[in-house]
Amino acid sequence: MNTEKLKEYIALFGGLLGAVLLFLQTLGFEFAWFTDKSIEAFTNALLAAVPFILIIYGVWKNTYVVTKKAKEHKQVIDEHEKKKEEA
């Protein structure tokens, strides 16, 4: 799943929230916190959060200082590169 697909899902979710808002307003229910502006703000927050989370995940997966397994993996990579240089 790529970022464009995630953005489409977020837009879909925002649209569904808008539909729920219109449905509730048709029935006469109104909430001070559930407005078009709050839905737009929530959707924008999600759109900003998705790339942030993907970047954090990428940094986490490509860093060799966090877990013991990652540190061991880094040692293996370093040994392999050292052998390549010697050859």
Automatic annotation (TrEMBL):
Please state what the protein is called.
Phage holin
- Write down the species: Kurthia populi
Q: Name one Pfam family in it.
A: Holin_SPP1
**Residue stretches spanning the membrane:** 9-29, 41-60
What keywords appear on the UniProt entry?
Membrane, Transmembrane, Transmembrane helix
* Compartment(s) of residence: Membrane
